[in-house]
Specification:
This protein is about 35% helix and about 25% strand. By secondary structure, the chain is an alpha+beta fold. It has an eight-stranded antiparallel sheet, with helices on both faces. About 50% of the residues are buried. The structure holds adenosine-5'-diphosphate (ADP).
């Protein structure tokens, strides 16, 4: 078992990891930028080290500063959280070369899964269905046109190194493909330092269904069911739930087996997520593997009773998974709402500022994962998510009712601060959501209307 680790992240996920560490008797060292100085969650860490100014590039993304902090604090391992350095293969390698364990998969696995085009090759090898498209990278407009003619329009041009909902461009005909192709390459080069793009069929009105994987270093790989993340804006998730209203037990079993097969093929270790698109006919296609803990992991924890962050720490400490696939027992329904400090009325512009009044919901079936409190100033430098509200009930209907009740209790007030809470309440009132009939285009269509 690990003794002392450093968390190379901030906010709610840093606090989530601190909590898991303390329940396991592991010491947790936090790092912070000057923008996060004084955040109350830092007091809960066993030690907190300032690593630089607010800009992420000079603090949370600055590998030498983080490694120095780890050496000064004398930790054995680093938990990267999500975002920042979480899927950075170079960082994982640097950790290894400094004799610090990276809490996540090996660097080579991060590298092969981080390139979406290579990951698709792995999926094909594992016999997992992928979205029809190019075999690997596409270098020229002519090649792109040829691929698109073969699979039919619309197509999506994707950056191999893309992530976070960025680096994707839909082309509905040859003119827009010719027009968008080079732009996609130069945008990919600028945003991800890698111009590689590939092409696949644009699946119309799919659902986003992803499977949670846990793998230990002794060859055991299991899945803990799915999360449906179809409520998205600009390919970014806003609401996630488990189980998916679209899955039958038979489809869950097939998709879960595919997810496990992919993880095995990739040599995956630790917690990860295999993402699929599910079309209206019940066909599913692998899109990518996220080699980290995800924002939406709590919904899986709520229905499975498995603490994923603790298992990340245990697996990194060399422990074997105590759970076999047949022991996984999924119960009830959980929904997560991302509470972002942004204004849906103003095109989701971030609303940083000081929180003067904060009322967090509670009661049966309510979990809130957050690092904020009254008096906290939301910095303008980072992601705008300030809290996650997770509600649980015996059925989906019950979870929705608890969600409405809890969202009604939640108050985040301060000058200029707006949140996604009113939007969540509107979504929960829509018949399409209540009936479980949404797809990844639902929210954009609703916002347009
Ligand atoms: P990222 O790594 O940036 O999150 P993903 O590959 O996971 O990107 O895709 C994010 C979202 O983009 C999906 O949930 C889906 O809504 C949309 N998407 C990606 N590929 C396709 C596709 N081939 N057809 C339709 N939608 C897609």
């Amino acid at each position: 078992m690990l003794r002392r680790i450093l968390i190379a992240n901030r906010g709610e996920i840093a606090l989530r990891v601190i909590r898991a560490c303390h329940e396991l008797g592991i010491e947790a060292v936090a790092v912070y930028s000057t923008a996060d100085r004084g955040s109350p969650y830092l007091d809960l860490a066993d030690e907190a080290i300032c690593i630089g100014p607010p800009e992420s590039a000079r603090s949370y993304l600055d590998i030498p500063r983080i490694i120095s902090a780890a050496e000064i604090a004398d930790v054995e391992a680093i938990h990267p959280g999500y975002g920042f350095l979480a899927e950075n293969a170079h960082f994982a390698e640097v950790c290894a070369s400094c004799n610090i364990q990276f809490i996540g998969p090996p660097a080579e696995v991060i590298a092969s899964c981080g390139n979406k085009s290579k990951a698709k090759d792995l999926a094909r090898q594992a016999g997992v269905p992928v979205v029809p498209g190019s075999d690997g990278p596409v270098d020229s407009v002519e090649e792109a046109v040829k691929v698109a003619r073969g699979i039919g329009y619309p197509v999506i041009i994707k950056a191999a190194a893309g992530g976070g909902g960025r680096g994707m461009r839909v082309a509905s005909n040859e003119v827009s493909l010719r027009h968008g192709f080079q732009q996609a390459q130069s945008e990919a080069a600028a945003a991800f330092k890698d111009p590689t793009v590939y092409i696949e069929k644009f699946v119309e009105n799919p659902r986003h269904v992803e499977f949670q994987i846990l793998a230990d270093a002794h060859g055991r790989v299991i899945h803990l069911g799915e999360r449906d993340c179809s409520i998205q804006r600009r390919h970014q998730k806003l609401i996630e739930e488990s189980p998916s209203p679209a899955l039958t037990p038979e489809l869950r079993e097939r998709m879960g087996e595919a997810a496990v097969a992919f993880a095995r093929e990739a040599g995956y270790v630790n917690a990860g997520t295999v993402e699929f698109l599910l079309d209206r006919e019940g066909n599913f296609y692998f899109i990518e593997l996220n080699a980290r803990i995800q924002v939406e992991h709590p919904v899986t924890e709520e229905v499975s009773g498995v603490d994923l962050v603790k298992w990340q720490l245990r697996v990194a400490g060399g422990e074997a998974l105590a759970l076999a696939q047949e022991d996984v027992d999924l119960q009830g329904h959980a929904i997560e709402f991302r509470i972002n400090a942004e204004n849906p009325e103003r095109n989701f512009a971030p609303t940083p500022g000081r929180i003067e009044q904060l009322v967090l919901p509670g009661g049966p079936g309510v979990r809130v994962d957050t690092h904020v409190c009254a008096g906290y100033t939301i910095p303008r430098h980072y992601d705008s998510m300030i809290a996650k509200l997770i509600v649980t009930g015996p059925t989906r209907e019950a979870a929705i009712r608890t969600g409405l009740r809890a969202l009604g209790e939640l108050r985040v007030e301060g000058p200029g601060i707006a949140t996604t809470v009113p939007l969540h309440r509107e979504i929960l009132a829509r018949a399409e959501f209540v009936n479980g009939q949404v797809d990844t285009g639902f929210l954009e269509r609703y916002l347009e209307s």
